[in-house]
Write a structure and sequence with these properties.
By secondary structure, this protein is of the alpha/beta class. The chain has helices at about 5-55, 100-110, 135-145, and strands at about 85-90, 115-120, 130, 150-155, 165-170.
């Protein structure tokens, strides 16, 4: 019949079988990790792409911008009285009769109105008090009287256009 199997022959096939089973298990593990990576990679890639698009297309974060506070420039005391401060009134808002109404108000405050007319532009957003050089204090006083916040030196008007006056008021909207 068959020859008896020695103990060494009985052990060898188990060693080989164990090594082969371990290699197969390691190969299965590698394949399973690869499959898991492929299954996770696509949703992860979509999630990363969505996040990147959200960040890229998001409106820029606006910092709270506080407008600069205009410096109060000391203008000194007015040299001329209201009665000595001639004013030219120009309509810069396009409303009919606005310059004559403002002239009447200035006259009631004691200012001589040297003339009325239309400004070169009719789109002034706010009323402006303009002054000749040396009459900034008078312009500040007139601005306070009219409750106007914007004053500045003559801009776009010649001194001769003031008809001898010191100040000009351009009426805005």
């Amino acid at each position: 019949m068959d020859a008896p199997i020695s103990p060494q022959e009985l052990i060898r096939p188990w060693r080989t079988a164990t090594l082969i089973a371990s290699l197969v298990a390691a190969l299965e593990l590698v394949l399973l990790l690869g499959a898991a990576a492929l299954l996770i990679a696509k949703p992860l890639a979509h999630s990363l792409q969505h996040h990147a698009e959200t960040v890229a297309y998001a409106p820029a974060k606006k910092k709270a911008i506080t407008p600069p506070v205009p410096k109060k420039i000391p203008v000194g005391k007015a040299k001329l009285s209201r009665a000595q401060t001639g004013v030219l009134v120009l309509n810069g808002n396009g409303q009919n009769g606005a310059a004559s109404r403002a002239a009447a108000k200035l006259h009631s405050l004691g200012y001589p109105v040297l003339g009325t007319g239309n400004a070169q532009r009719q789109d002034y957003a706010t009323t402006v008090v303009l002054y000749r050089k040396g009459f900034q204090a008078e312009a500040a006083r007139l601005a306070r009287d009219l409750k106007v916040t914007v004053t500045g030196p003559l801009d776009g008007l010649s001194t001769s256009a003031l008809h001898g006056g010191k100040l000009a008021v351009i009426l805005g909207a």
